[in-house]
Amino acid sequence: MDAFGIDIGGSGIKGAPVDLTTGTLTAERLRIPTPEKSTPDAVGDVCAQIVEHFQVPSETPIGIAFPAPIRHGVVLFIANLDKSWEGTNFTELMQRKVGRPVVAVNDADAAGYAEVYYGAAKDHPGTVIVTTLGTGIGSAVIVDGHLVPNTELGHLEIDGYDAESRAAASVRTAEDLNWKQWGKRLTRYYSHVEMLFSPDLFVIGGGVSKNFDKFAPYIKVNTPLAPAVLRNEAGIVGAARLAADGHK
């Protein structure tokens, strides 16, 4: 067991051991529903249960991906879990629950890091921006293999709107946009991000990435586009890799 990753989501908490050479899971992941009252204590107990289930050796690095920005181990704000998370020292809580050091990371950052190490952006030089198109828009910025954490590029204001309120995959569904109409909105979003960062590659993740070929031709930007490849395992894999790399 090279490293262990846990991915905390609004509906489920998933964990598995990860082979750091290949970026693959070495055992079937365990998924436990997120507690209805998703307080720090309740979620921490589930994470401890997952670590116990796999009998993770004490020397194995453990990374935990979390759906919020985390700075120096502290949750800055929270959208998808109990509001009591705000201001919680996530790292201290989880170390107490699982009984050993852990590395905490934002879930979009974990997924992005996994794509750079093992997926769509493997061996791609320069600045890679990974975005997850789902209920909102998550983002990760990786420069020459180094993560720039907590970017939250889904919340850029564009044309007076919060970007994700116009371009997230959930908006396409809610407004019944066809691929071309949505592609036009994505062009407005990605062209703005392109102007700000001049990236070398955009990687597009989220469940909708399986339909990449249907909407990507309508995104008119100069930066190359690639679909994410790790899908539902990206958070686990990225968290494990970041833990092994000693991310702070």
Explain what you see.
It is a single chain. The chain is an alpha/beta fold and 248 residues long. It has two domains: 3-109 and 233-244, Nucleotidyltransferase, domain 5 (2-Layer Sandwich); 123-229, ATPase, nucleotide binding domain (Nucleotidyltransferase, domain 5). It is built from eight helices and 15 strands. The protein has helices spanning 40-53, 90-98, 107-118, 164-167, 169-174, 179-197, 212-215, 234-244, and strands at 3-8, 12-19, 24-25, 30-33, 62-66, 70-71, 74-75, 103-106, 127-133, 137-143, 146-148, 157-158, 161-162, 201-205, 225-227. The strands form four sheets. Strands 1, 2, 3, 4, 5 and 8 form a six-stranded mixed sheet that branches. Strands 11-10-9-14-15 form a five-stranded mixed sheet, covered by helices on one side. A two-stranded antiparallel ribbon has the order 6-7. A hairpin with a 2-residue loop joins strand 6 and strand 7 (74-75). Helix 1 (40-53) packs across helix 2 (90-98). It is globular, with a radius of gyration of 18 Å. The relative contact order is 0.18. The model has no long low-confidence stretch (mean pLDDT 96).
